[in-house]
């Protein structure tokens, strides 16, 4: 089933069930998402949460003063706090990883300096729009499930895009390998895009998804048992703060992994996002981001928004994607300028062998 087909099914569910009594809507939602509960007490608890989420969604949409809409989705039986604990707070950003063991500072692969190719970029020199999905450099939308490993999905999405652009084949690569083998992450408990890139550079390997499939939990590393089909020379941070042009230039060249931040008051808007251009406040902030971070891939832009690939399945947002309003402020919309990172390819003649899509 394609992302568009899944999105159509989700939209149909929202439209068909919206007018039903909430009790009937919940029962149909359970069937649609294959949900079951341990006992009647748990089911009643989840129903009450579902009812509250449905009321919030309807109130938000009925207000009619936003550039985006919300909808019922797979997260609709979760409180905002439960959702944030799994999908946001245990995230993979450097902020969240400060309390974990860190790679020794003298043992890091080459990171390009901040005054590299995206420093002092002129907006007039950039394409008006870029869409790597349409250009065939983005794999299908994936679903991390209840594993807090967005850091791995954001990293892999960028490497997948780089390999397609530079070596010609779009290959679905393994997030599970990073979860199992990156030694400085906590697997489903959080990780860092920097550490994930470090692992790929130092080990010169990333396997196909089909050879090292996703299971949604940390297991024993077996990267020596699978064939490597992708590698990178290094990675670089995009110059941040007041620097929309730098991020535009980076995304014009390839998909880029990045981190976004949300205040508690913005969590339900993100959790229930259905479609449209997601707009932060006038300053570009999505509330006060006290620990709510999430890593994504930026896979394109248009004059008014960024194209965001998420890792929550096709039932969230626009077939698994979000349009995030462009705002040229200090940190970017929802802080997206803060931690944007892109992989650096080997020169074509220095690459051992290109990845093959099979």
Automatic annotation (TrEMBL):
One of its GO terms (molecular function) is cysteine-type peptidase activity. It holds the Pfam family Inhibitor_I29. InterPro entries: Papain-like_cys_pep_sf, Pept_asp_AS, Pept_cys_AS, Peptidase_C1A, Peptidase_C1A_C, Peptidase_C1A_papain-like, Prot_inhib_I29. SMART domains: Inhibitor_I29, Pept_C1. GO terms for biological process: proteolysis. Belongs to the peptidase C1 family. This is Uncharacterized protein.
């Amino acid at each position: 089933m394609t992302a568009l087909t899944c999105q159509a099914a989700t939209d149909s569910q929202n439209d068909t069930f919206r007018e039903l009594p909430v009790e009937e809507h919940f029962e149909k939602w359970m069937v649609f998402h294959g949900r079951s509960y341990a006992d009647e007490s748990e089911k009643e608890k989840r129903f009450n949460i579902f009812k509250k989420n449905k009321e919030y969604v309807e109130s938000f949409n009925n207000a009619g003063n936003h550039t985006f809409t919300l909808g019922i989705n797979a997260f609709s039986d979760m409180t905002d706090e439960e959702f944030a604990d799994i999908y946001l707070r245990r995230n993979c950003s450097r902020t969240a990883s400060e309390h974990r063991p860190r790679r020794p500072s003298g043992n890091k692969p080459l990171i390009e300096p901040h005054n590299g190719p995206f420093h002092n970029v002129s907006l007039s020199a950039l394409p008006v729009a870029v869409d790597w999905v349409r250009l065939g450099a983005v794999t299908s939308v994936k679903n991390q499930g209840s594993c807090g490993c967005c850091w791995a999905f954001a990293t892999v999405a960028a490497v997948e895009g780089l390999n397609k652009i530079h070596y010609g084949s779009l290959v679905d690569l393994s997030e599970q390998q990073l979860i199992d083998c990156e030694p400085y992450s906590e697997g489903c408990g959080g990780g860092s895009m920097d550490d994930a890139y470090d692992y790929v550079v130092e080990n010169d390997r990333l396997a196909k998804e089909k050879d090292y499939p996703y299971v949604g939990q940390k297991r024993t590393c077996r990267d020596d048992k699978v064939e490597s089909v992708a590698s990178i020379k290094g990675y670089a941070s995009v110059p941040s703060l007041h620097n929309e042009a730098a991020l535009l230039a980076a995304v014009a060249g390839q998909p880029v992994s990045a981190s976004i931040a949300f205040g508690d008051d913005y969590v339900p808007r993100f959790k229930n996002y259905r479609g449209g251009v997601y707009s932060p406040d006038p300053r570009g902030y999505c509330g006060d981001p006290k620990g709510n971070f999430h890593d994504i891939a930026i896979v394109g832009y248009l004059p008014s928004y960024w194209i965001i690939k998420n890792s929550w399945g096709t039932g969230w947002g626009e077939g698994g994607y979000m349009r995030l309003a462009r705002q040229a402020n200090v940190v970017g919309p929802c802080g997206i300028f803060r931690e944007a990172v892109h992989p650096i390819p080997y020169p074509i003649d220095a690459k051992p062998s290109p990845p093959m899509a099979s």
